[in-house]
Structure formats: C-alpha cells, structure tokens
Amino acid sequence: MKNSFTSNDSKYLLTVFILLVIEYYLTIDIPFFWDATSKALRAGWIYENNFGSLIVPSDMNSGHPPLWITSLALTWKILGQSLWASRMLLLLINIGVFYQLFRLVKSLFDENVPLILFFFICLEPTLLAQTTSLNNDMLLLFFTLLGCNALLKNKFLLLTIALVGALLTNLRGIYVFIALGICHFILNKNHYLNYSKKQLYPYLIGIVLFLIFAIYQYSEIGWAIITKQRNYSQHREVASFQTIFKNALAYLKFYLDFGRIFIVFPTCILLWKYRNSSLNFNKATHKTFLLLVVFVIVFFFGIVPFSNPSGPRYVMISYLLVMILFVNLLYDEVRQVNIKKWLIPLACIGLITGHFWIYPPKIAQAWDSSFAYLNFFPVERKMQNYIDTNNFKRIQIATYLRENINDPANTKVKTKVFHIPNPDLDKNKYMLMSNVENSMDDATMDTVLNSWVLKQKFSQLGVYMALYENPNY
C-alpha cells in the first residue's frame, strides 16, 4: 500500500534527518538574523520574567501569538539561554516539518511517481533557507503541513492540533486556518472526504482558543491583535491602489524567485493542455491542484491588499504544492515521459542556482529566503576585525544594518555601538553599507557611492560589506 511505510521510506526519512543534524552542527554559530532578532528579544523578556506573563510589553509587541517565543524561552529554561539550545529547538521542528512533508508527498504523489522524488521537493530554496533561520516560519509550516495531512486522512484530533498551533504561532496562521477550512469544504464537495458534523469541531476549538489568547493579551496590555505601536500598526493598514499593484507584482515574483521559475513556468505550460475538457486530472493531481489554488488565493488576499512588507517565506506551502503538482503532471500522461527525463534534472539545477541569485543593491531582496545570506557572516567578521584593528570609533559609524543576536543571554547588550544614520548626511563621518539590508533609500545610496571615499570592502559570492568615509565631515 502506498500510504503504509516501507523500508525505503524509512531510509529516505533517515537520510533527510541525518542531513538536518549535519546542518545543525554547520550552522550552530549562526546568530538570530533579520526578523528573528525580535523573536529573541521577546523570548528573552519572557525568560527574564520567569514566565510571569507570556505577553510581552506593548513597546516590543507586534500582536503575534507567543507560541514560538515561549517555546524558545522554555528551551532556554531547560538547556540554558544559548544559541546552540535555540538551534536544537529549530532542529526538532525541522525534523517534524520534513516528516510531515514526506507524509504529504506520499498522499499527493500519483501511484506511478517514484517516492525518491521526495528529495526533489526538499530542494525548495526558501524551505532550505528557513531550516537555518531562528524565526517562527518553520513552526508555522509544520502546523500547516500537519493540517493538510490531517485533512487528507480525516484525522480530526491532528487537525485540531494543527489549527490551534497555526493560530497561536503567528497571525498569518489565520490565513492557514481559512485556507484549510476552504480546502476541507472543497475536498468534501469533490467527494474526497466523507462529511460528518465532527469535522467542524477542530475549527470551533481553534476559534475558541484563539479568542482566549486575544482576551488574555487584552487583559495584559490593553489591546489584542491590532497593535497600538506605530512601527507595527502601519504595516497592517489597507494599502493604496498603487501599493496593491506593487504588492501583486511582488507576490507573483515570490513564485518565480530563487530558481522557482524553473518549476512554475513548465507547470503552467503543462496545465495549459487541461483547458481541453476531454482531458481530466487524475485523483492525486486533482487534489494537489485544489489545495494549491486555495492556498495561493487565500495568501494573495491576505497579503496583497495590505501595507505589511511580506516575504517569500510567507507562502512556502504554496511552493511545495506547486512542486508536487509539477511532478504529478510530468507522470500523468504517456506523452510526457520523455520530457521528465531532462526537465526534472533541469529544475534541480535551477533550484540550486536560486541560492546564488543576488540582485543589484537598489533592488530589495528577501535575504532569509535562500542560503545566500549565510555568506554575510564571514564578511561581517572581516569588517569587524578591520574596524577594530584600525581603531575606528564605532560611535562615529552609521549603518542601516540590523544588529544580529549572537548570544540570547545578552540581548540587552549592544556590542556594535553603531548608530542610525543622521538624515543630514554631512553629519555622518562613516557609513557602513551592505546589500544585506533594504532600508537605505536610493538617493542616500547614490550620494555615498558617488561622493564618499571607500575605506574597505569585503565580499563573498555576491554579498558585500563596505565602509565609506564622508570627505566633507
């Protein structure tokens, strides 16, 4: 039986788990980076206050539920407040994610698709990058995959856990909740599930527990979900028509970026043939297609109309479903047998090259969505050594770069002592720049690049850090 585990299945999973453990040791010193730094600060507050409250103060609260930051704080309580302990938690979640992904692949791959192509699905660039990021996205993906598997297997207890977990991990869990609900309805309508009233219970339990969280948060800080902090609330406003249009283009770019164009483009071509009503999807392909369409549409309307900056990591489940659909389509028709012999290897190469896609400095890039960002840390160390060796006063160095957190036990200690640039550029003596930040506006960048003196620059595989001196200071 396809859905029963075989010895080969165990070998595939064991291989992936071993690779995840190796990755753990290779990245054990990689700090909290980008958005993950805010999670470290919040988890640190919970830890330092000895779990007296799971709701952090308003000045550092973006409204997201606290499951991930509480899990971090609890891990520190057990193993010590350290980077290696944080990554141990991530390792366990990564193992859960790939186990659930394997179960999904087994459910959605057509009967004649060899399961070894599970490794092809595992090549998704943003998924791989997130296995190294101490953010909450892998935890959210775990509950999303668990929810999909629970739906397909009619496992209502697991569906309840998935829905509650998604809602308490991140506010984007609301989109997952909605998408799974719509998928549930559509799968019922297409007779892939047998309807019963108890199918509603997981959703009712999820809503009730999420409301309990909202009430708890309101009782602690006087607001829930919609934060009063301007730096967060402005990201949840309805966008202007121009911004919505830009967001729509960015959303489309998510599906083409980091090598995914090698999957999406041929998938669209393969789907085009099914416009003819005489051709029908097989059962596995049809279920995959339905799930994909629902998630793509729900995420579109959850992301595009709002001002919140979004990233490719938000929609990882959609990329995985696209890849499963791609494989199913290649094995669906006899006429495509010759195509897959070269198309799948080409797609593999394309996905691997995605980790080397570096855009010009003026184009914002999702640096936590491919392994490219790992090149930043050796470059940063070289620049730090250069600054220290040449006795530059750090208080005179301005930068838009976020401060990474290397030691969760010292989240309040500012080790870099760099300052935010003065809007009047003439009042900045030095500027520390890197393409691993998206905050500097084009005018400021042009001024620094064209008028200031380059003191030192380090780069690795397209990622760079440069120190400039103001000649007019």
The gist of it:
The protein is mainly α. The chain is built from 18 helices and four strands.
Describe this structure in words.
The structure is a single chain. α8 (156-169) runs antiparallel to α9. β3 (453-460) and β4 form a beta hairpin. The protein has two domains: 7-356, no CATH class; 371-469, no CATH class. It has a four-stranded mixed β-sheet with strand order 1-2-4-3, with helices on both faces. 38% of the residues are buried. 55% of the residues lie in helices and 5% in strands. It is mainly α. It contains 18 helices and four strands. The protein has helices at 7-26, 36-48, 67-79, 83-108, 118-121, 125-130, 137-153, 156-169, 173-189, 201-221, 230-233, 241-256, 261-272, 283-303, 316-330, 337-353, 376-389, 442-451, and strands at residues 397-399, 430-434, 453-460, 463-469.
The overall number of domains is 2
Within the largest sheet, what's the order of strands?
A: 1-2-4-3
Our estimate of the beta-strand percent is: under 5%
List the uncertain runs: none
Distance between the ends? 74 Å
Output the structural class.
mainly alpha
Mean pLDDT: 89
Number of strands: 4
Name the overall outline. globular
Instruction: Output the helix-strand order.
Output: HHHHHHHHHHHHHHHHHEEHEE
Helix/strand layout:
Elements: H1 7-26, H2 36-48, H3 67-79, H4 83-108, H5 118-121, H6 125-130, H7 137-153, H8 156-169, H9 173-189, H10 201-221, H11 230-233, H12 241-256, H13 261-272, H14 283-303, H15 316-330, H16 337-353, H17 376-389, E1 397-399, E2 430-434, H18 442-451, E3 453-460, E4 463-469
Parallel strand pairs: 1-2
Antiparallel strand pairs: 2-4, 3-4
